[in-house]
From TrEMBL:
InterPro entries: Ald_DH/histidinol_DH, Ald_DH_C, Ald_DH_CS_GLU, Ald_DH_N, Aldehyde_DH_dom, Aldehyde_DH_Superfamily. It holds the Pfam family Aldedh. The active site is at residue 246. The keyword Oxidoreductase applies. Belongs to the aldehyde dehydrogenase family. PANTHER family: CYTOPLASMIC ALDEHYDE DEHYDROGENASE (EUROFUNG), SUCCINATE-SEMIALDEHYDE DEHYDROGENASE, MITOCHONDRIAL. SUPFAM superfamilies: ALDH-like. This is Aldehyde dehydrogenase family protein. Residues 12-463 form the Aldehyde dehydrogenase domain. Keywords: Oxidoreductase. The keyword Transmembrane helix does not apply.
């Protein structure tokens, strides 16, 4: 057990209060860290990262698994911190922590396999040279996180970046700084004292995030909205700091004529309403073929009607999101949509009761922009081909789900979707599989967390060749090789490529 590292302090004495989204009670005060404190955290993390590198694969794996076990034992404490700051029910927060444990475990156990040095074929043009591929850590990763899954989402970067051998400085959302601080102190508690500074937290608003992006970190892993991602990308561009951007989604569920409608409705209601719809890869659009559309809508309405905000899901964590949800609803209804469940009256701050919309115009904000509330639009389509076309027409491409009569048909549809992750017969199925990468394209961002890609995202490939013996073969990279021998070699290579 080690003592806690002293957290970086705001020298200007500025702090901010965090309030419960349920009743507005002040939960705690946190420092607003400025550029100097952020740089100091990066410096300390970098110093610890040198010791982390010296610990080798086994040392890092042991430390990360010790942290994982400690988080598992402290699951209730972490879940309660999440529940307090986000307002989500504790049982949801516990499930979120479990997901983070699954990923941390995978990253710790697979880092060496994915990133460890290995031999690769040299190919005929490098005859006589052994080729080795190795990955080195990038250095210190700046992680900027959102509030909706304040453990699971940033841990998709933090756990994998640490496993890849890096230090991490984490700027949690200003809505969930207490969760971020708890993650860092639990790390310091669980690992040997020499690594206590490896993972540090800085708190504050956008300015602190921006300071982190320009602090000299070696990579930024950002999760949040595409608008903020653009600002972070601008800052990173100045120093060519690489950026991984996990942004929002407008995920669609496609339902075919032979689908199990009961299973589809269950999954859709959970995917759309869990966490009050505040899930980047939550269900926001449904495209059902016309022959089953009515039946599916009835089932969705029946199930969604049974949900009680405050019990099945929490409030809008970000109060200003209520206005976004309201605008989307009103605009959809004014544009000809119909609401078989709920409507603008469903907004009862801080909660939003479930809303089901049908016949929403495809160019309405409710179909184009992230609503981030317990609202689902269920539109009818001619066939699955049209469903694919509409699903792919979104500026976002994060996740999608497919319900069809057979798995084969579902797979065939999945392969035609542009989304970064597709679940057949469930929603968000891929998120619980640590070996599968997670991320999207377009407004959903770029790069991947989780899985082997998620480890490589925080590593830099190093290519090594080792010449086996002097004098063997024709060395094209030496003036000592005669012109004739070199030309014979090139001609041989040309013939080989012209033929095969
Ligand atoms: P946000 O973009 O408002 O903020 C994200 C983080 O960026 C916060 O920590 C914030 O303080 C920081 N920030 C704000 N301005 C900044 C700046 N100029 N420079 C640097 N950092 C800055 O997002 P949010 O409201 O916290 O989170 C919700 C969004 O996150 C939704 O769009 C959701 O879809 C997305 N999200 C995506 C994923 C994913 O993995 N793809 C996961 C969870 C959430």
């Amino acid at each position: 057990m080690s003592s806690l590292p002293s957290p970086p302090r705001a020298t200007d004495g500025t702090t901010f209060d965090v309030r419960s989204p349920v009743d507005g009670a002040v939960l705690g005060a946190h420092p607003v860290h400025g550029p100097a404190e952020v740089r100091e955290a990066v410096r300390r993390s970098r110093a610890a990262a040198r010791r982390w590198a010296a610990a080798g694969w086994d040392g890092r794996r042991a430390a990360l698994l010790a942290w994982k076990r400690s988080l598992a034992r402290r699951m209730d404490e972490v879940a309660e911190a999440v529940a307090a700051e986000t307002g989500k029910p504790v049982h949801d927060a516990r499930a979120e922590v479990l997901l983070a444990l699954v990923h941390l475990d995978w990253a710790a156990r697979n880092a060496r396999r994915v990133l460890g040095r290995r031999r690769v074929p040299s190919g005929p043009a490098a005859f006589g040279r052994r080729a080795l591929l190795a990955y080195r850590p990038v250095g210190v990763v700046g992680v900027i996180g959102p509030w909706n899954y304040p453990v699971h989402t940033p841990m998709g970067s933090i756990g994998y970046a640490l496993a890849a051998g890096n230090g991490v400085v984490f700027k949690p959302s200003e809505l969930t700084p207490g969760v971020g601080e708890l993650l860092a102190s639990s790390f310091a508690d669980a690992v040997p004292a020499e690594f206590a500074d490896l993972f540090l937290v800085v708190t504050g608003f956008g300015g602190t995030g921006s300071a982190l992006a320009e602090s000299g970190v070696d990579k930024v892993a950002f999760t949040g909205s595409p608008g903020t991602a653009r600002k972070v990308a601008e800052v990173c561009a100045r120093t060519l700091t690489p950026l991984l951007a996990e942004c929002g989604g407008k995920d669609a569920v496609l339902v075919g004529a032979d689908a199990d409608l009961e299973a589809a409705a269950n999954a859709i209601v959970w995917g759309a309403m869990a966490n009050a719809g505040q899930t980047c890869a939550g269900v926001e659009r449904v495209y059902a073929v016309a022959s089953v559309h009515g039946d599916l809508v009835e089932r969705i309405v029946r199930k969604a009607r049974e949900l009680t905000p405050g019990r099945h899901y929490g409030p809008m964590t970000l109060p200003s999101q209520l206005a976004v949800v309201e605008r989307h609803l009103k605009e959809a209804l004014a544009g000809g949509a119909h609401a078989p469940l709920g409507g603008p009256e469903s907004l009862r701050a801080p909660y939003v009761h479930p809303v089901v919309l049908v016949g929403v115009a495809e160019d309405a904000a409710a179909m184009r922009e992230e609503t981030f509330g317990p609202v689902v639009a269920v539109n009818a389509v001619r066939d699955l081909a049209e469903a694919v076309e509409r699903a792919n027409a979104s500026p976002y491409a994060l996740g999608a789900a497919v319900f069809t009569g057979t798995r084969e048909e579902g797979l065939a549809v999945a392969e035609r979707l542009t989304a970064g992750g597709v679940s057949v017969g469930s929603v968000l199925g891929y998120a619980a599989v640590p070996s599968l990468p997670f991320g999207g394209t377009g407004e959903s961002g770029y790069g991947r967390v989780h899985g082997a890609e998620g480890l490589r995202a925080f590593a830099s490939a190093r290519s090594i060749t080792v010449r086996r013996r002097a004098g063997g073969g024709t060395d094209l990279m030496s003036f000592a090789t005669s012109r004739e021998a070199a030309e014979r070699m090139v001609e041989l290579g040309r013939k080989l490529h012209a033929w095969r």
